[in-house]
Design a protein that fits this description.
Structural class: mainly alpha
Pfam family, one: HD_assoc
Number of strands: 2
GO molecular function: dGTPase activity
Protein name: dGTPase
Shape: globular
Largest sheet: 2 strands, antiparallel
Distance between the termini: 58 Å
Organism: Dyadobacter koreensis
Oligomer: single chain
Number of helices: 21
Helix content: 55-70%
Order of helices and strands: HHHHHHHHHHHEEHHHHHHHHHH
Strand order of the largest sheet: 1-2
InterPro entries: dGTP_triP_hydro_central_sf, dGTP_triphosphohydrolase_C, dGTPase, dGTPase-like, HD/PDEase_dom, HD_domain, PHydrolase_assoc_dom
Strand content: under 5%
């Protein structure tokens, strides 16, 4: 793989259009960022759970605030890499005219990285998969291909994000977001089909990155950008190099920010969080600065900022140092897992504490269990109704599905995807509200 091909301003669905003058106001990749910011799927992230239940009297991060912070960190990672590269290559901008935009590409991809996550996060993904593996959806196994069944029984938010950004939803126009090829490729952490199966020894195969319905589109992008293809019976590519920076930005943010939220909710004490973040501060005067601050939340904010700054420096340096193996598709680790000691051990300690005390905290588990029931319940109602549409009740349920999701396709897989597009796009609050209403637990207000 080489940067000359990997960086492309060609737009999905608008390949024949002339690229606008970048000197006017925004580059093509800044346009990607802005299109995402103003989109409905991005706005809906404000009511999708990050870790802790929403809403609450104490502000904690949701998917939207998380995505904005990841984009901020991602832009820094990309910009630092560009500046390091330019120091050793004085003619860099002439050789690679788009390389200066790498920070903007990373930032745009970071904004989009969670767009495909259903309500209630990983619990929502599990609920969708369970409906087909062990629930009422098992009856559809014989009505779809093996590859399509693999998609349904292992529903993946990463693949769903690629679908949201490229699928021609009714009335939205082909191309819809019309993002650049490089931005689209940069969200594909696992650039392979579901049939390839999970292989945790390969960083690009831990999950999968596109549904069967989007496979032709991904092939088109991968071919244009020159992504390295893995030989074999299944469709597998090596990662676009920028994916490593997007992943690092996400890893940095959720590991550090979850601690900050846990402190605000009194799940972790100040001393506990301080002991975890202090080794990442990389500031010999940090104790003096902390002593000058009275507010404990402000103390944690300072430690958080210092920790993120240190991790940005570590990951950007590693990406620059390993660029040759990354471009060759041979780098098989996340950046955060390969940073220097003692920082690597500190991050492992944070992960251990987070799993033990944060991700298994009672309210976190309760929202996951509730979300599991809600998502499963919605699928039990809407999928049979849409596929059969053989009763007054079914027809009324189908009327609740927005027209943009309705497909003209008649095959079972496409019709099931229609319902999954609708249900997976719901916010936590809307999913609960709709579930309660169609189950007769509550009644809609008349206004």
């Amino acid at each position: 793989m080489n940067w000359e091909k990997l960086l492309s301003a060609k737009r999905w669905g608008s390949e024949d259009k002339t690229i606008e003058d970048q000197a006017e106001a925004r580059s093509e990749f800044q346009r990607d960022y802005d299109r995402l910011i103003f989109s409905s799927p991005f706005r809906r992230l404000q009511n999708k759970t990050q870790v802790f239940p929403l809403p609450g009297s104490i502000f904690v991060h949701n998917r939207l605030t998380h995505s904005l912070e990841v984009a901020s960190v991602g832009r820094s990672l990309g910009r630092i890499f560009y500046n390091r590269l330019r120091k050793n290559r004085p003619n860099l901008d002439d050789e690679l005219p788009l390389i200066s935009e790498i920070g903007n590409i990373v930032a745009a991809a970071c904004l989009a990285h969670d767009l495909g996550n259903p309500a209630f996060g990983h619990s929502g993904e599990a609920a969708i998969s369970y409906y087909f593996t062990n629930g009422a959806g098992l009856i559809y196994k014989e009505k779809v291909t093996d590859a399509q069944w693999k998609d349904l029984t292992n529903f993946e938010g990463n693949a769903n994000a690629f679908r949201i950004l490229t699928h021609p939803y009714a009335g939205k126009g082909y191309g819809s977001f019309a993002l650049t090829y490089s931005t689209l490729a940069s969200i594909a952490k696992y650039p392979c089909e579901s049939l390839a199966g999970k292989d945790k020894t390969k960083i690009y195969r831990k999950k999968y990155g596109f549904f069967q319905s989007e496979q032709p589109g991904f092939i088109k992008i991968a071919t244009e950008l020159g992504l390295a293809k893995v030989e074999g019976e299944h469709l597998i590519y090596k990662r676009h190099p920028i994916v490593f920076l997007v992943e690092a930005a996400d890893d940095i943010c959720y590991n550090i920010i979850d601690l900050e939220d846990a402190h605000r909710l009194k799940i972790l004490s100040y001393d506990e969080v301080k002991s975890l973040l202090l080794p990442l501060s990389n500031d010999p005067k940090i104790e003096e600065r902390l002593d000058d601050i009275d507010d404990y939340d402000a103390k944690i904010s300072l430690l958080r900022a210092k920790a993120i700054n240190t991790l940005i420096g570590q990951c950007s340096e590693l990406f620059y140092r390993e660029q040759e193996s990354i471009l060759a598709g041979e780098f098989n680790h996340s950046l955060i897992d390969q940073i220097n000691e003692p920082y690597r051990t500190v991050m492992k300690n944070i992960e251990t504490i987070s799993i033990k005390k944060i991700y298994n905290y009672s309210s976190v588990v309760q929202i996951e269990v509730a979300g599991y029931k809600v998502m499963g319940g919605l699928l039990e109602e809407f999928i049979p109704a849409y596929l059969n549409n053989d009763s007054h009740y079914s027809r009324k349920l189908v009327e609740l599905i927005p027209k943009q999701f309705i497909t003209k396709a008649t095959d079972e897989y496409s019709k099931i995807q229609t319902v999954l597009d609708f249900v997976s796009g719901m916010t936590d609050l809307y999913a609960v509200e709709l579930f309660r209403k169609i189950k007769g637990i509550s009644f809609p207000s008349i206004s």
